[in-house]
Structures are given as structure tokens and as C-alpha cells.
Amino acid sequence: MRTGAAAGHQGYYHEAIRYDSDDELLAVLLPFLIGGVEAGEPTFVALGERTGGLVRSALPPGLKVEFLPGGDVYARPTAAIRSYRRLLADRVAEGAGQIRIVGELPRLAFGPTWDWWARYEAAINHAYDEFPLWSMCAYDTRITPAAVLADVARTHPRFATPDGGHLPSPTYTPPAEYLLENHPVVPDPLQAATPAVELTDPTAAQARAAVHAVDRGLLPADDVDDLVVAVSETVTNAQRYGVPPVRVRLWPGHDRIVVTVSDGGAGPRDPFAGLLPVGDGDPGGLGLWITYQSCNHVTLRRDEAGFTLRLTAGNPHHGG
Amino acid sequence: MIDEQRPDGSSGHVCWAYDDPATFRRSAEAYLTAGLAAGERVWYISPDEPESVLARLRGVPAIADALRRGAAEVVPLGSTYASDWTVDPAAQVAAYAAATEQALAAGHTGLRVVAEATALVRTPAQLDAFARYEHQVDRYMRSRPFRAMCAYHRPELGARAVAELASLHPESNVEELLFRLYAVAPGDGHAALAGELDPSQHELFGTALARADLRPTGGELVLRATGLRFLDHRSLVHLDEYAHRRAATAVLRTGRPALARLVDLLDLPRVRVEVAR
After folding, report:
1. Which domains occur in chain A, in start order?
2. On chain A, which terminus has fewer CB atoms closer than 10 Å, C or N?
3. What is the SS3 assignment for A204?
4. Which of A142, A153, A188, A194 is CA-nearest to residue A21?
5. A225 neighbourhood in chain B, CB within 8 Å
């Protein structure tokens, strides 16, 4: 039995909040959260430190709302999907008729890594649709770039407004369509230079060795091991399912290593590849899903030359 | 190279693939000379005519002296292994165990052999039996002072057969080999995995696991993986299935937390990772 605006809705009821004051945020969230608890629905808050504190102090004392550490949840999109899907499956198994969540991406996500968070916002329309979830994603318009807000409108079916409204988003685009579009990728400044290593049609072992060769103790060993996993999976996929030549390029920087893997093919057919484990038997889906969880940023690009994945270990929030 | 370590015989079980017989002979002679220096009895097991082998070895001073003393022997391949040229793994290990005990009883510190075994692995059935034997004798070597260099002539066998054999040795000179599965000392688990396992190795890995025929104890197959630099998700799935067929949980002991993260992602019910830095 679902309550509130999502009453009678099947699957995921996904909304965005665009607020430009704390009062506006609270005007939407307080009734949403209090209504959830009063209806006996598991109700979660995954906000940043400031907004989380604001909401906590505004809620009636003792209200059974569960606060999740927002920064941890939103470290990597695929990991966020995985952990939310577990949380939702557990609550449904316990008999929940609806689950309410309000979430907010850290401001850092609006920089060079926004593209994969935009894909996250699109993908979850599908990834959470098997659950009776009503969620709101909060965006502070005072600090959110216009291009990000445009993607928010395209990836959220509706907006929750401070006057209690739930308005359809005119530019909403179904996820399978949105995810197959070529979205702009912010070039990493390291890529302006000649790559430190460039390999053509390497074996996965040679590509792994190249990562170790450029690292030279630059990144923590765990980060390098994770990047090695990602590069190995990506090169294996390119060899198996792509079109030769497969090219691997590596750029070490002082706080990160950037690797691109390209081939002459069209890339995975499944729009959710990387964000969900496997889809429709699309080969290589598990490898790409592991890759998304082993790097701090993954971009993808399809053009006339083929398909390119860019993997970043270390700090992906460069100034470029 | 599979790791930083050059084959130096320290593990006691070396696979030596060769193209040029003269180069192999020099390596074999050095290997036997090192054994004599360590007080071991040494055997040179060869398919060649014994007299010609003896004539050659007499040109190596340390071995010539040992041949006179009886500390070194040339043994015809056919007399050591089964007459139909297909090895019986358990019987062969027992034969070497008896020979090792005799060497000890005669005052040697152990037994060391060079076995030119190409003639024993020519057919698929021979290769399968011999590869199974290789792991069993590897296990014996972890507890008793028996050492061997197993030599194979690559042009006759091909790279695949050589890889199948080399992957079951703790040491080899096969540069393109990515991983090894070998025995460990009693109490140190069921086997060790070293090197790198990726999709190019899946078939070889499956074959190696089947031939090692690891027997779980207490519902676990403990694999020392401290020398394993990389293991991809498909190899983990393979290991999970192997453990499942043996009604066990595979326990990977590694220094790499990345492996634990990967196992956690895959939700594999039959694989557990124990990380020790």
C-alpha cells in the first residue's frame, strides 16, 4: 500500500527538488519525511553534512527517520546503485509497502565527474523500478551549474515543489535513450600531453604491466591494484567484443593516473552496462560493472573512430 | 616471466623447457653439480643411450668423480617409469620415495634427479597422467628431500603441452607462463597460486585445477595466494565452481585487499579471501 503522491504508482517514483533557500528545502522535505514515518514506511535521509543537520534539527524530536552518511553512499555511482538496491530489497523483504529516501549528491559531483552522476540519475529510473520507492534528489540551485540542472531535468520524471506540487519534467528522457546519447566529457588536462605509454593491441597482461610501470609509487597500492583490475577487464572486453585495433594510453599525474582504452567498435549495446551487473546477456557486462567500481571516474565516448573508455584512479576532480 | 624469481632450484621442483639440447644439458649438469655439492645423490634420467650420456657426464669433473663414487648415476628413462610409457602417479611417487629413503640411508642428504621426460607426455593420455603425477610428486617434495628438474623438449611437444606441465611446477624457465599452481608444505594449506590469472589463462587454469585434484579438509580448500599478483573475476568464478564441486569453500590467503573487494562484489558463495598484510 503506497501513500502520498506515489499512491497508486507502480515501481519507482523519482523526483527532483530544485531549491534556492533552506526554507524551500524544508518545505518539501518535512512533510515528505514526517508523512513516511507516520505511514510506517522506512524513511531515509542521505544528505550532506550541512543540509543533513538542517533537516535533523527541523524534524520533530524522536521521529524514526534513518540518516545515511551521504558522502559514503555517493562515492561511486555503481556502488551507490548496488548498496541502495540491497537496502530496498531488504526493506521489501521485511514487508515495506513503500520506502522513502531523500538524497543529495556532494557538490564535488558537479565538476568533471558529473557525467557519470548524470548517468546514475538516468539509470536509477530503471535500476530501482522493481521497488516501491519514492525518492527525492535535492539540488541547491545556488551552487548547481546550469548544465547540471539541465541534466537533472532530463533524468527526473518530475519535480517536487515547496507548495506541495509534483510536476512532470517536460524534458524528461527515458533512461535507455538518455544513456545511449553521447554526453560531453570534460577532458582531463593530463590528456593534452603525449601519453607516457601507448600500446596497440596489447594483451591484458601487458596492459596491467603498463599500469604498474607508470605508477612508480604515485598512488596508494590499493588504488593501483583496483586500476589494474579495471584496465585488465576493459582491455579484455575490447579484445573480445570490440573491433581492432585496441589502443591503451596512460597518463600519470601527480595525484592520479588516467587511462583510455579504445577500439573501433560501437561499445556495449546495453545502455545500463557498467551501472548494472549484466543486461540482456550483453557480453562483457560484468567486467564493465567491476570497472565502474574500481575507478574514481569512468567516462565513455562513441564517435566515428569507435568507442573509448577513460578510467581515472586517484583524484578525478581536476581543474580542467 | 611469472615472477621476479629466476628458477634456481630452491623450491626443489623445476620445469625446464628447452629448444636446444646442448643448452639443456649444460643446465642439467649445473643442477646436478649443485646437488652433489649439497651432499645429495643425483640421477640423470634420460631416454638416450646410457653410454653416450655417461661419456658426456664424465667430462664434468664433479660429476665424473661422483659417478666413480656411486653418488651419481645415469638411469635409462624406460627403467624408471612404467613400461607402457604412461605414468601411474601414485606408483611413481612411491618409487621416488623409496629411492629417496635409500639415498638417505646411504648417507646422502637427499635425492636429486634430472628427468628428460618428453617421451612420457607425447599423447593426451600420457600428458594427463604425467601432469597429475607432477602435482603429486610436488607434494611429496614439500616434506621430503627429493628434488627434480623435469625437462621437456618444446619443439616436440608444443607450447600448450609445455604450459600445462610448467603451470604445475613452483619454478620454471617458461617465460610466457602467467600462473603456477603448486604444492605447499603440510599445514600451509592445500596448494599455492602464483603469478597472474586472466581470461587468456582460463582453460589452462581449469586443466591445472583438475589435475592437481585438490582434496578439501574441514570443508575448505586453502590456497596460499601471496604470490598471486592478479586474479580476474572469471577465474574467481571458476574457483567458486571448483570448490562447489568438491563441497568446499576455497580460501584465498593474499596480501591484496583488491581481491577481497572483488570477491565481495561478485557475492561468490564458495570463495573467501583472507587478507594478511
Report:
1. 4-180 (3.40.50.300), 189-314 (3.30.565.10)
2. N
3. helix
4. A142
5. 256-258
